[in-house]
Amino acid sequence: MSPGLWFVAPALTAIALFFLVPVAASLGLSLTDFDLYTVADAANLRFAGLDNYRQLLDDPVFWTSLRNTVTFVALGAPLSVAVSLGAALLLNHRLVRWKGVFRTLYFLPVVTTLVAVAVVWRFLYHPRVGLLNRALETVGVAPVDWLGDPRWAMPAIVLLAVWKGFGFNMVILLAGLQAVPAQLYEAARLDGASALQQLRHVTLPLLAPTLSFVSLMTLIGHFQLFAEPYVMTQGGPGDATRSLVLLMYERGFRWWSLGQAAALAFVLFAIILAVTLAARGVGLLRPGEARP
Amino acid sequence: MGREGELVRALVPEFERRNPDLRVHVQQVPWSAAHEKILTAYVGEALPDAIQLGNTWIPELVALGALAPLDARIAAAALAREDFFAGVLDATAIEGTTWALPWYADTRLLFYRSDLFTAAGVAEPPRTWAAWRAALAQVRARGGAGRHAILLPLTEWEPLVILALQRGATLLRDGDRYGDFSSAAFRGALDFYLSLFHEGLAPVSGAAELANLQQDFAAGWLASYVSGPWQLGELRRRLPPAFEAQWGAAPMPAPEAQADDAPGLSLAGGASLAVVRSSPRREAAWRWIAFLAETEQQAAFYALSGNLPARQSAWRDARLRSDPKAAAFHAQLEHVRATPKVPEWERIASRIARHAEAAVRGAESAEAALAALDRETDRVLEKRRWVLARDDAAGSTP
């Protein structure tokens, strides 16, 4: 065996033990009907084959959760990246003073505890006394029951998630922006480029690798939506904010249907893999490669 | 669990004085984590000797074989079973065996703004559904915009299940193997429940109102609410003493006038204490549980915590006798029924609220909502049917 293999062997063993083995066990679990009765008596375990997966396809709650998760990804991921990019561009501008202060302030939501933040946001969203509805009232919009109306609950969660997460991507994009050489901007200005043209022809192409990385990570992360609906709405109203991971948590840890939850985990894995490959196939996300 | 875990420590010195060979170590766990923690401890073989349980968790732990049966011990200690509220004691018994001893009792009844009701022309709290709906309509007529006669949060399944139990619905059928939500009794309860929303008596809202519940109750944004004994403590703690005269607690109205003027049924809830089967100190655990079930200890625990005693003789205590609102709970506790004693009940109950909400919002018709609820319940109970069928075939009792 080559010395290189010996060098990576400890790390590989750790990965195998703490990642591959549990994943394989989980796959095995998804082929059984492990639940509370099995915890009582191992004789209650039945091999279910692909039944768990078939039941998922038949389950209206699964499709609702899938739809909710896709809505969150479609609304939240582009919005989050756009807001992060906008904030990074603003912060990078040569006219801005106290960059460090603003950078810290915009990053602050990322480090706050979600549970504490959720308490405050629940009051912000309150239909009668919340600040958001008060603000809308001044421009003549009727009060909205943000967390109680099935149409608005998911957008409300999107808003919270974008506010909480944009600082993280902003810091990464800021680093990418600062890597763009100043001479290129100077050259573009000499050629008569407006600010918008500079953005389109100098900034974005050179930012493409960082932007690809940020977009890909945001996409994957948004599919795993759990904490915000768990803390804010518990999946309600009705099933309007029940995401796939929240459904998985309920089935697995609240009701102990670990077989069903494991099947759901692998379905989610397949979905994220498919979407990521499709995005790369279409040429949108290729971290590490500059755009042609 | 919760605050009780801290407060019960005050009763330990007396027990240790009477039993010098025993020491009690109380481990307190928050309610939100308790269910998961108990199940995890069972799997890890790390359960304590005696545990407190929410009554709806008893079927689950019995299915796991985690609890020791108590009938023989109760008989040996000559504990008077009749002294416990019948409905609450029934919640701890599954198929004739008693698995836990009731510690405190819990049920739901109507909290209402007596001053707003009187001003609207309703002198007495309603005793029948028809009178209830009429009273709420009168309160609403006088109330004005944005003020609701009753708050029925769409996230709570308890009010709808209480109405269904009053109508005689069994919730599950065939030995608790299938959902029975499409029955006429449950449908009747759902129709009444929906009418409260569609006539504008209850707001179509979720948990948003609950953030400020007591303040909203005091300000008159909601004139009534279905809640439990903890609300007595919450209202008294959060609002000025002068407010005490403006609200009352009344037993649930019944579908029709009852012959003996009895109130409608309500849920049998509360917590019980059980002995863990795998513990090597079952005898000691039993002595602790029996101690807490003594009349004086039940009254003492009420004084500490505000939780209502499960033993009727403890209600002779002066503090309880002088509280008219606690008297309403006493009247209700004589008319309570437990929910189906299957391990899957919590899971099924969480879906009741979700489908009732769809019907309230008009997303589904009442019929379609109940049919969907039955389908989901049947799917959840599939494993139970298989286990019961297999055990029947093998000739053993489940």
Describe it for me?
The complex is a heterodimer of chains A (292) and B (398). Chain A is an all-alpha fold. Helix content of chain A is 72%, strand content 0%. Chain A contains 13 helices and no strands. Chain A has helices at residues 3-30, 36-40, 51-58, 60-92, 99-111, 114-124, 131-138, 153-178, 182-190, 195-223, 227-232, 244-254, 258-281. The longest helix of chain A is centred in the first third of the chain and has 33 residues, at 60-92. The radius of gyration of chain A is 23 Å and the shape is globular. Chain B is of the alpha+beta class. In chain B, 46% of the residues lie in helices and 11% in strands. Chain B has helices at residues 2-7, 12-18, 31-43, 58-64, 71-76, 86-90, 114-119, 129-143, 158-166, 184-198, 213-219, 230-238, 282-292, 295-305, 318-321, 324-333, 345-360, 366-380, 382-394; strands spanning 50-54, 93-94, 97-98, 101-106, 109-112, 172-173, 178-179, 224-227, 248-250, 266-267, 269-275, 308-309, 336-337. Chain B has a four-stranded antiparallel sheet, with helices on both faces. In chain B, strand 2 and strand 3 form a beta hairpin. The two termini of chain B are 30 Å apart. The model of chain B has no long low-confidence stretch (mean pLDDT 90). Chain A binds chain B through residues 33, 35-37, 39-41, 44, 46, 55, 60-61, 122-123, 125-129, 145-148, 150, 233-234, 236-239, 253-256, and chain B through 35-36, 39, 42-43, 60, 63-65, 146, 154-155, 204-208, 211-212, 221, 343-344, 346-347, 354, 357-358, 361, 363, 372, 376, 379, 383-384, 386-387.
Topology, pairings included?
The complex is a heterodimer of chains A (about 290) and B (about 400).
Chain A: H1 3-30, H2 36-40, H3 51-58, H4 60-92, H5 99-111, H6 114-124, H7 131-138, H8 153-178, H9 182-190, H10 195-223, H11 227-232, H12 244-254, H13 258-281
Chain B: H1 2-7, H2 12-18, H3 31-43, E1 50-54, H4 58-64, H5 71-76, H6 86-90, E2 93-94, E3 97-98, E4 101-106, E5 109-112, H7 114-119, H8 129-143, H9 158-166, E6 172-173, E7 178-179, H10 184-198, H11 213-219, E8 224-227, H12 230-238, E9 248-250, E10 266-267, E11 269-275, H13 282-292, H14 295-305, E12 308-309, H15 318-321, H16 324-333, E13 336-337, H17 345-360, H18 366-380, H19 382-394
